[in-house]
């Protein structure tokens, strides 16, 4: 797209704005709504979670400070690149980290600090609900957080009138609508893929359980009155209010009335960003956490604690392998090496440090020379750990080289994920393609190659991979704009073959048709090496468990 054409699209509002609240960065992405593969501007703001009172949280004040900063950065970038400042958009979408617990009272006041997906204090609730539902309820799901608060008889429980996710909260404040995209909703409570809504039978079981348990919690409204209303991709999710416009853009440049797509979770936007929303496709998203999504052809045979059952943004069933710990420990080591370089009088930027470590990893032994790295900063349910202790371990006879160290750290990012993916393999789940996205894959041919070895499957990376979920939610906003131009909201619900079922076609035909895709096939030596590494990794979890209890 030429500079003049981009400027015209921005001024006319023929654009889609995606905003994603990631674990370490709030990112805004502006695309051409008619050609969402064309990214016009990107803005960002760095933020971090805090560990307070033994719970991981973010301040809601930081949510708005970060949103405004990321949006202002995007506006500045658009002006530098295209000579114009955006003041309106064809559609807006909000995405964020899934799961967690944001509870509000009748007046809309927050009752307790935001409890993020990273917390692992919900074991009793998750265990009880898994048995009650016959469906795996992970520790981080919103219903587990809510029920743990009920079990613990926390003082705020009788005052709860609304529970949502971070994306649902931001969307609510911007539009006044208490809604959630089905993909994000599937991380709050199990979804019935036939109805594209909360599973009515399981809702009834939970309400009955809560009433039976008593302890004053019967005053809480029915569960469906507490949770956001579920929407599927393409549905109308409200418009920007005057109050929302002031929250997004305190300068007053952006006016109210801009339509929104359903707010989604980072898993759903990751699927969109990698064109992995059709059966037999999957994707891996790597950041502070790392998770794999595999769109299922059929239900799984049994319940597995390693697997979540969630959905695509259109409501199709997905098996999710979610690991609380991703690339943060690798980033910490990179920071250490960067500081060493600066102390030695040869300062290098972060990207150069990562590039050097990744390239050095290619020179390492296929099994990382006997070295072992655990990236567990937080608890890791798949590994049976309530807390984390990052560890780097080697035996006296291991080959302690920089290449092996770097490879061990990269393998460690994929270690817990590989344990969960082995469960899907045993279920006979087959994949035609696995896409990867996130900053970890910016250095071409390294993390992608090692992930292919970990999964023993081809791994594709596209030229949109580094924009990640912010671009994915911008695409969903553009999709909603296209659908709303062509059909009514009712048709999405009543017609199985209607517009909602065409999200895969929309991505294939309008977004990824000309995308450059690089595919790395697993190399036999890497597969054998990673398998040996994973055997050590599994055995060494006993050391990690002792570290948790001892340190």
Describe this entry's structure for a reader:
By secondary structure, the chain is of the alpha+beta class. The chain has three domains: 185 residues, Nucleotidyltransferase, domain 5 (2-Layer Sandwich); 103 residues, ATPase, nucleotide binding domain (Nucleotidyltransferase, domain 5, 2-Layer Sandwich), CATH 3.30.420; 167 residues, ATPase, nucleotide binding domain (Nucleotidyltransferase, domain 5, 2-Layer Sandwich). The chain contains 18 helices and 24 strands. Strands 16-17-15-14-22-23-24 form a seven-stranded mixed β-sheet, with helices on both faces. A five-stranded mixed β-sheet has the order 3-2-1-6-13. About 3% of the residues have low confidence. GO terms for molecular function: kinase activity. InterPro entries: ATPase_NBD, FGGY_C, FGGY_Carb_Kinase, FGGY_N. This is Sugar (Pentulose or hexulose) kinase.
